[in-house]
Amino acid sequence: MKNIPVIMIIFGGSGDLAHRKLYPSLFNLYEQGLIHDNFAVIGTARRPWSHEYLREQVSDAIHETHDQVDENEVKAFASHFYYQSHDVTNVEHYVTLKKLAQELDDRYSAQGNCLFYMAMAPRFFGTIATHINDQHLTGSGFNRIVVEKPFGHDLVSAEQLNKEITASFDENDIFRIDHYLGKEMIQNIMPMRFTNPLIKNIWSGEYIKNIQITLAERLGVEARGGYYDTSGALRDMVQNHIFQIITLLAMPEPKDLSSDSVHKAKQELLKSLIIPTPEEVKKNFVRGQYLGSDTTFAYKKEPNVDPDSTTETYVAGKTKFTSGPIAGVPIYFRTGKEFKEKKTRIDIVLKHINNPYGQAHSNNITIEVDPESKIYITINGKKIDEPGIRSEDLTYAFSKEEMAKVPDGYERLLHDVFVNDSTNFTHWSELKRYWEFIDAVEDAWQKENEAGNPEIAQYLPYRMGPKEADNIFESPTEHWIYE
Ligand code: NAD
Fold it and tell me: Which terminus in the chain has less CB density within 10 A, N or C?
């Protein structure tokens, strides 16, 4: 691997993401020799920390995520970190920041390469982008920016943010990050689809009956009630993670594996995404809110949540494409808080075929993404000592040793940013399309809210969400495979 000279500026250097994900991931890249001599990281936030205090924080973050570390390595790594107290809304602070970045660029021979990471509340992204531009923070080498999710709140705000960022950065230098695209099993979707004749040849509406995606969370909104109430499950999970998964499942085969070809294939598919009408939203979507239990609050009673809130903590829905290999195949998805367990999984349900044995289980291809990582195919065979057919799973799974080697999504994606590979990041034209879909659903819901009688299913916590979601299927022979 190459040593990439760079000065990295993290906005939100005292935050949760930086501590739990960015610092440990950077350390792993350092240990592998991807970044070694010519890099420095400036952590910024409002608090009056010293360089030394940030280094202690970085060292703590590494110890919290690694069982065994070489203390000299940790020390050497942390010595590359600098802290700059910085309020992102104060223009003058960018002047001080720029000065430090230039000093470090000289000291580390970083060749004018700058990487900006927006690890802060999304309401600040536009402000940061604007001041990077008007205070000329970009360097004379490459300038890349990583933007956390959510990228906008709807299409209009996403367009505005994009305008602010593209004032200083080219589309090729903007890395809109979605850590789902760094997950092992999500990265396995393309190889699975395109290298197995067994799978590739049945990837069409002729054989696939439907696709089901579940992103279930065990936790409620916890301390994030105030923010969550302005967002909801559709914006928080469907707009990004679920649509990324849908796109990988439905896109045509790219010409090759270059970032350009992969994005071209995605964009070709997304042109044919069907944007639902209000009637379709009413028919094909279910929104819900969790109820309370002996030990937990109902959503509407959570701290900082409006007691009359119409924000959904659960959504199930359906989508389809008019082109691509699975044109016309219904793709059902659901996501919610306070499910019975944390789980991300994809079920590809194959159509039944006529057979001389009569009743047989459908063949399903299941991809478990979290917390387990495996693919299994449900297939039928004979029962041993009685007539009839039984179904068994053929499983592709990782050993414990292999699992231990799987890098965190953030580590992979940060590496991609360093080597300028945007394959697993969201292109603006893709994001725009996702927002068009989300806005159509939000607008329909908003009209229902205004009409005064919105249908918001109330569901029991720690089960499988509202039973109303069992009614979104097109035919009575369809049902959720994961129950
Ligand atoms: P956080 O609240 O823990 O951290 C926010 C940071 O911003 C802190 O360092 C805070 O001091 C700083 N800050 C706040 N106001 C400031 C100001 N005016 N000037 C300068 N600094 C200021 O948030 P987080 O959980 O780290 O999330 C950051 C981003 O990452 C968000 O966009 C979030 O959606 C995204 N994200 C976080 C996680 C995660 O696991 N935490 C996962 C995925 C995405």
Answer: C
